[in-house]
């Protein structure tokens, strides 16, 4: 029987070549456009994808021109697997005779995954405990102390359900009886495989019963049944018109049987994509089949070799369609030789002897290789090449890559020229505006309304809460500054939402503090009222979700989730339409309709589950994409053509992908079942590579590092480089042009001038005329920081959801000591002094003491500090007449230019001794400054306070000239440390140093009264503070010696 099987060379434009041959009558004997404009409509043509169907329609339209013609029925091939093409007929299409198909409907993807997820969770719950071994009878010996850690959450189960669904589809497609799972656990297998097979026996054998109860079938089973119906119809001769299948490699059994029926039909034809007619028979015999050598599955021709066996044909029986040029033939021959089976590469020597350098150069003339340093450079190089195409009128380009991250990067880089590109892989719903908003909303509930989650939600442009966008934008900023960056929010914001009035009252009180951030102090009373209204609306929006304490079913969570989103997005100018909004609604509807009773969630697990489901839902690319640029996955690229083909991600584990192990069956088990090995996918991707590489103009790309880790060039590139030798180096040089452009495009035309240390010179009227002694230290160490704080009036915001830290603990210690000392300003301490001080400190730290970590780690150290402090007090009280705590002082100065200046201070503690001396004491919960640091004037707080005290700034009794300084370190392993400020080793006294510092202060302040005196950043790196809130503003790392800060500079 005659078999009408053809092939189109990979270098030829497949659809254009086929359309011409079909219309000319070269495909189906006696059938051509000469039969008239109505005759073509009798034919049916199957193509791999909907994209290819649209492209073939366009090719036919161009070929017939302006004449009125009814085109053939062009139906897309469906996908039985993600990377597998097969002839799938439209749902509900009926058969060719107009009779309805007597097949149950297919279960939807989400409904199927939900059912399988519940099966997986039921299995995990039944086991509950970790299995430590499997006994000789196959029973499980468990450890009740450990939990079973497989699929412990619904999100885990959802992920595994995809693996299980894929395995079920494979068994259906390959026509494997599920009963064959029973005898798989052989003595040579680890007994632990019994656990997996027990589950598979429950799940896979029980799955048909679940489908039967619902009157449904698996989509794969329905598709196989449809294919079989068409095969039977063709074999029985009931097909009325011509039928042609193009672009399929018949890589599964049902499709191969259909292709065989079409090929044997009198009016049928099969057109194969890129069958290698150049490879010698000996090498081709190593490809395909059931052999154990690598080429059996990994060679580009492996699938078609098996298909030819099914069709009972040899390559000599396959007729080529179309014509190719000499250079294209040279490219095809080179490609065939480069990728020949490893066992037959000894033929390379003979091949190189048959062609000269000029022929090899001609074969590779249109090939360029981008070898980028990393994935960013690779994406930018590809984007530049695609943008270059747009400079030539009518030219097209298509990027083909299995790497979704690379596709997204290229699309993003093209936006720098305002070019939106159609990405056939689409984007996950979870990354769309509506999907991100949905994830942020459930994150708020899952994180107990934490300040960080609320800030992220309110920053989303889709949030309205009943306000207009401009109003909610302004209120969100005020809410973040006034509430979320206050102690009212804390680490958890549930209390903020639970009692809006209390939360706003706390925030307002904090804003009235003299140390509050200026932005907080600027919030007006009406604005505080609006913030309370905003908080009440947030509380109402999340009330249903927050009411779901513990675990609840999926329907309850979906209802609460949708209610929150509806309230969040409600507003006059809200965005209520769009593909992502519709897709999100459809996803909620389908999840709600298919929710199972066995899947229960708390807020956190529902959040993970929703994110996983939304990540699997895909959205198409931009609706207004550029018509001449495409980004295609490997499946979508089959049969497609462009003037420039770009093949991206040519690194091992990317293209080709790594052969991935089955989640449920090991390799020997798959072989025992009759399933093809994972390497089959490598063969399919190799064929995709050859189809793209053979185009006239092609750019290949790879990255030497991905994710910061070195990569290995794709085996395809390694083969081409080995055979191409010097000619291949020309491809690398041509690709280097795009690498150089990628490196240069963001490089400034001239070297950036070195950044100088900032040294602003503000006018005198803006310079401060009053400073505290602590700010004098800042002026000495880092004048720029003082400039930013006092002249620019910039202040660092507290972190969002800030928890009380060391600064708050230090303030509480100071406050407790102030109250304690004022209550006992003289004389010996009472008997209950420890309990009194302890209670004062507990009152000041009541919020921190709610934290178990603080109670367990920090509070015991504070108890030691209390004991140390009381010992310190006991040792000093006999010699002290009076103690004054937290005393403010002010001293009016006259500077060298005659201008007035006010110096202020607040002393932690001043002791008036019975011998007439004064001791100034500064509490330090951190590390006190060293003697040298004090001596040279970089820590002048105590010395300047002493100079002020001598000049009457603190309203102390007169005639007390003997003044001393002391640092009291509070905290540490021993509870604290007494550090007197003593300069005996430097052969000077504390007051001599204080007088020197005071004179230096007058000179320093006078110097800053000169308009020419700048406020430089970190003029003394060695004495600069480790952390400075204004370093980024001063761009310290740009002008400092090494980009790093020496001593904090």
UniProtKB/TrEMBL annotation:
InterPro entries according to UniProt: Ds_break_AddB, P-loop_NTPase, PDDEXK_AddAB-type
Source organism, top-level taxon: Bacteria
Segments forming domain PD-(D/E)XK endonuclease-like: 770-1015
Pfam families with a match to the protein in the record: PDDEXK_1
Protein name: Double-strand break repair protein AddB
Upper classification of the organism: Bacteria, Pseudomonadati, Pseudomonadota, Alphaproteobacteria, Hyphomicrobiales
């Amino acid at each position: 029987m005659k078999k009408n099987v053809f092939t189109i060379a990979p270098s030829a434009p497949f659809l254009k070549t086929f359309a011409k041959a079909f219309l000319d009558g070269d495909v189906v004997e006696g059938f051509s456009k000469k039969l008239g404009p109505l005759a073509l409509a009798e034919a049916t043509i199957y193509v791999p994808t909907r994209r290819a169907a649209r492209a073939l329609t366009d090719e036919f339209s161009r070929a017939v021109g302006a004449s009125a013609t009814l085109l053939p029925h062009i139906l897309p091939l469906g996908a039985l697997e993600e990377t597998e093409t097969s002839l799938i007929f439209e749902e509900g299409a009926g058969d060719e005779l107009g009779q309805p198909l007597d097949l149950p409907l297919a279960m939807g993807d989400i409904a199927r995954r939900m059912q399988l997820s519940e099966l997986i969770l039921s299995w995990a719950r039944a086991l509950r405990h970790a299995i430590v071994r499997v006994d000789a009878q196959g029973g499980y010996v468990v450890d009740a102390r450990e939990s079973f850690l497989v699929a412990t959450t619904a999100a885990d189960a959802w992920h595994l359900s995809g693996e299980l669904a894929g395995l079920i589809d494979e068994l259906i497609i390959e026509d494997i009886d599920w009963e064959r799972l029973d005898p798989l656990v052989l003595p040579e297998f680890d007994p632990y495989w019994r656990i997996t097979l027990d589950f598979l026996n429950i799940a896979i054998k029980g799955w048909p019963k679940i489908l039967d109860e619902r009157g449904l079938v698996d989509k794969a089973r329905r598709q196989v049944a449809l294919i079989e119906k068409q095969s039977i119809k063709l074999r029985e001769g009931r097909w009325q018109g011509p039928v042609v299948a193009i672009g399929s490699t018949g890589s599964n059994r049902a499709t191969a049987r259909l292709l065989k029926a079409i090929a044997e039909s009198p009016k049928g034809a099969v057109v194969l994509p890129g069958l290698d007619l150049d490879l010698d028979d000996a090498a081709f015999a190593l490809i395909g089949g059931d052999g154990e050598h690598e080429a059996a599955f990994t060679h580009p021709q492996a699938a078609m070799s098996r298909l030819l066996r099914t069709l009972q044909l040899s390559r000599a029986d396959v007729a080529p369609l179309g014509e190719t040029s000499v250079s294209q033939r040279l490219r095809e021959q080179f490609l065939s030789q480069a990728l020949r089976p490893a066992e037959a590469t000894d033929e390379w020597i003979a091949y190189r002897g048959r062609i000269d350098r000029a022929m090899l150069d001609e074969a590779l003339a249109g090939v360029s290789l981008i070898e980028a340093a990393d994935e960013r450079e690779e994406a930018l190089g590809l984007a530049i090449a695609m943008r270059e195409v747009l400079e030539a009128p009518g030219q097209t380009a298509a990027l083909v890559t299995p790497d979704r991250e690379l596709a997204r990067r290229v699309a993003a880089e093209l936006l720098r020229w305002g070019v939106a590109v159609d990405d056939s892989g689409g984007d996950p719903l979870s990354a769309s505006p509506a999907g991100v908003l949905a994830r942020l909303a459930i994150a708020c509930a899952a994180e107990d309304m934490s300040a960080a989650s609320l800030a992220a939600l309110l920053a989303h442009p889709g949030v309205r809460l009943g306000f207009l966008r401009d109003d909610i934008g302004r209120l969100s900023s005020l809410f973040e500054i006034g509430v979320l960056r206050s102690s009212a929010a804390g680490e958890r914001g549930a209390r903020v939402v639970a009692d809006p009035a209390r939360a706003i009252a706390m925030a307002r009180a904090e804003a009235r503090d003299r140390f509050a951030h200026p932005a907080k102090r600027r919030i007006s009373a009406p604005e505080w009222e609006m913030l309370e209204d905003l908080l009440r609306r947030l509380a109402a929006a999340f009330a249903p979700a927050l009411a779901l304490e513990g675990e609840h079913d999926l329907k309850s969570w979906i209802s609460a989730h949708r209610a929150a989103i509806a309230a969040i997005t409600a507003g006059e100018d809200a965005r209520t339409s769009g593909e992502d909004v519709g897709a999100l609604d459809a996803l909620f509807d389908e999840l709600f309709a298919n929710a199972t009773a066995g899947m229960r969630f708390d807020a956190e697990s529902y959040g993970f589950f929703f994110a996983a489901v939304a990540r699997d839902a895909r959205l198409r690319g931009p609706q207004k994409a550029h018509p001449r640029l495409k980004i295609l996955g490997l499946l979508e690229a089959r049969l497609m053509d462009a003037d420039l083909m770009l093949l991206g991600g040519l690194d091992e584990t990317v293209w080709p992908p790594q052969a991935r192990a089955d989640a449920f069956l090991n390799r020997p088990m798959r072989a025992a079942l009759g399933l093809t090995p994972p390497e089959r996918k490598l063969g399919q991707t190799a064929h995709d590579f050859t189809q793209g590489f053979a185009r006239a103009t092609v750019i290949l790309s790879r990255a030497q590092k991905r994710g910061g880790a070195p990569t290995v060039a794709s085996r395809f590139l390694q083969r081409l480089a080995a055979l191409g030798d010097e000619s291949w180096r020309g491809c690398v040089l041509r690709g280097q042009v795009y690498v150089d452009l990628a490196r240069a495009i963001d490089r400034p035309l001239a070297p950036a001038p070195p950044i100088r240390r900032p040294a602003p010179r503000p006018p005198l009227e803006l310079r401060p005329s009053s400073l505290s002694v602590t700010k004098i230290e800042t002026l000495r160490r880092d004048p720029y920081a003082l400039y930013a704080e006092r002249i620019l009036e910039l202040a660092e915001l507290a972190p969002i959801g800030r928890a009380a830290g060391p600064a708050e603990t230090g303030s509480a210690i100071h406050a407790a000591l102030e109250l304690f000392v004022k209550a006992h300003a003289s004389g010996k301490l009472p008997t209950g002094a420890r309990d009194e001080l302890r209670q004062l400190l507990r009152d000041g730290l009541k919020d921190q003491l709610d934290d178990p970590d603080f109670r367990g780690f920090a509070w015991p150290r504070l108890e030691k500090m209390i004991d140390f402090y009381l010992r310190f007090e006991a040792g000093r009280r006999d010699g002290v007449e009076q103690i004054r705590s937290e005393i403010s002082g002010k001293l009016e100065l006259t500077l060298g230019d005659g201008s007035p200046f006010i110096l202020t201070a607040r002393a932690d503690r001043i002791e008036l001794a019975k011998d007439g001396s004064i001791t100034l004491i500064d509490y330090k919960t951190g590390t006190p400054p060293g003697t040298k640091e004090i001596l040279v004037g970089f820590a002048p707080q105590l010395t300047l306070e002493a100079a002020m005290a001598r000049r009457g700034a603190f309203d102390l009794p007169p005639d007390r000239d003997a003044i001393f300084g002391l640092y009291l370190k509070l905290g540490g392993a021993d509870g604290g440390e007494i550090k007197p400020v003593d300069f005996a080793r430097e052969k000077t006294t504390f007051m001599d140093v204080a007088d020197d510092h005071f004179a230096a202060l007058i000179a320093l302040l006078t110097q800053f009264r000169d308009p020419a005196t700048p406020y430089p950043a970190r003029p003394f790196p060695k004495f600069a503070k480790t952390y400075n809130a204004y370093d980024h503003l001063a761009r310290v790392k740009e002008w400092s010696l090494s980009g790093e800060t020496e001593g904090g500079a």
